[in-house]
């Protein structure tokens, strides 16, 4: 995965691939390549969401433990 890829870029690329596949704009010759790329992007987005969820939960717990 590219070092500078962020969630929004990955999601946009994934949405574009999905649209191409849904509208049958992808030739059979490149279909497997597009599906493989989509798989990589999905894994990246899932990892990013899990990481963000963990970080947010950590921050919330810290906030709960601070006296007012």
TrEMBL record:
The lineage of its organism: Bacteria, Pseudomonadati, Bacteroidota, Sphingobacteriia, Sphingobacteriales. One of its GO terms (cellular component) is exodeoxyribonuclease VII complex. Pfam families: Exonuc_VII_S (PF02609). One of its GO terms (molecular function) is exodeoxyribonuclease VII activity. NCBIfam families: xseB (TIGR01280). Signal peptide: none annotated. One of its GO terms (biological process) is DNA catabolic process. Keywords: Cytoplasm, Exonuclease, Hydrolase, Nuclease. Belongs to the XseB family. This is Exodeoxyribonuclease VII small subunit. It is an enzyme of class 3 (hydrolase). Its EC number is 3.1.11.6.
